[in-house]
Amino acid sequence: MKPRATSSPRMEIYVPLVQEFAARVILFHEAVAQRLGLHATDVKAIRLLGKNAMTASELAENAGLTGAAITALVDRLEAAGYVVRERDANDRRKVTIRAVPAKVRVLDQLYASQGMAMSRLLSKYGATEFAAITDYFVNATKILSEQTGKLRKGGAERQ
Fold first, then answer.
1. Whether residue 6 has pLDDT greater than 60
2. Is residue 90 part of a domain?
3. pTM, 2 dp
4. Average pLDDT over residues 81-105
5. Contact indicator for 100, 84 with CB cutoff of 8 Å
């Protein structure tokens, strides 16, 4: 499949639409964080942890934070009861950070209304359209991840 030109009329509509969507997502996450008395980065870290534990360095890499910043973030989340530090049974020097499930459920409740509204929106699409939407978001997520990595490494200039 041949890539589409970036200056097509479709792109002139698409790019601003995606930029607004991204801004609205960020604003929603900030509103959730504010409701909980947290920083948006705190919510991002809790979401990145999900049901999995990570070391501080893994979380820092995933969140794009320095070691000092992740230490402050984990300290803040631990004090608020959102995460716990767990020492490895075999190597006491290794510490992982795990989200507290009860606190994640509180966070999830703030996303419930948005999730239901999005489900209603998606239910109006047929199987073929839904597959296209899913394909778009899977691939857009990969692109965002790749481009984030490039920016963090000093790249991702206009190509």
1. no
2. yes
3. 0.76
4. 92
5. yes
